[in-house]
Amino acid sequence: MNGTGVSPEECKYLEILENKNLTEYKMFFGTIGEVQSFLLNNPDINTNVFYEQKSRTASESFAGAPLDEAINYCIGGYSENYDQFLELAKQLENVNKKKARVRKTSTSFVGQRPNVPAYIAGAPKNMYRLERTEEKKLKRIWMKVTYESSTTEDQIRNRGIIALNLIKLLEMNNYMVDFRLFEVCSVDSEVFRCEIGLKKPGQMLFPRLCYYPMCGKAFVRRVLCRIKESMPFKCGWGLSYGVVLNEQYTRMIMDIQDTDIYIGSPSEMNISGNNIYEDADAFLDKIGIGDKIMIPVYAVEGGFLSSGG
Q1: Which of 94, 175, 251, 279 has a Cα at 20 to 30 A from 39?
Q2: Do residues 253 and 184 make contact, with C-beta atoms less than 8 angstroms apart?
Q3: Alpha carbons within 13 A on the beta-carbon side of 132
Q4: Is the per-residue pLDDT at 107 higher than 70?
């Protein structure tokens, strides 16, 4: 502990990149569990820059649960309004079922399961064969964890629900999804980027593990701030903890491809937090994926359900 933060030599998650007059501090966590593991080791705090440790001193009304609890929530235990989250998610899933594509079956000499009546009757085509599935495609989703201070809890929650619903829609349409959470911000000539994998391609989606980093304010205002406090910054991060970059610069820094899906703050995604169906429609219209997959029109096919808390 020398009061200068961690270094790439001692921290496997950190890479420091120098690009002309810009210094980039890149933190990459393959899972949310790695975030917790990093912080449980109590990484050195850069006291040269962070004179006050706001990850600890911020009020609970602003930043949520105390830091130690916030760290432990990373791999389970955070359940505030989770039942409501699941209930609203189920409403979208019920609409999705109307659009579910069922593989067609036909009778054949060979197949996956027997056609018992045809077999008893002695028919030569006594097996059912499913139509061949298309080769799975990969889609990467980047979700910005930060949002404006005026953002409501309903907006944050609805964005989380709709993001997970998007994953399910893509998987229904034969995509494998790589889902990552991130923050990108800067102070003067320094950029901080933090990337966290929430779902790997082919991996099952676990809503419980995604819920806290997507919807818990303590994750943004305590966990991510604690990570920043251990960065070996040279500029004055202690006051603002960084200014969030706009989408254009974020895409450049993160190397987000045109074929990837970018999820910005709730307001950027036109999410009001008032009605989950209307928010889902606005979100899908914003990302413009209707030409790639079959998507419902939720406000029409699902009816109107108030999601206000």
Answers
A1: 251
A2: yes
A3: 2
A4: no
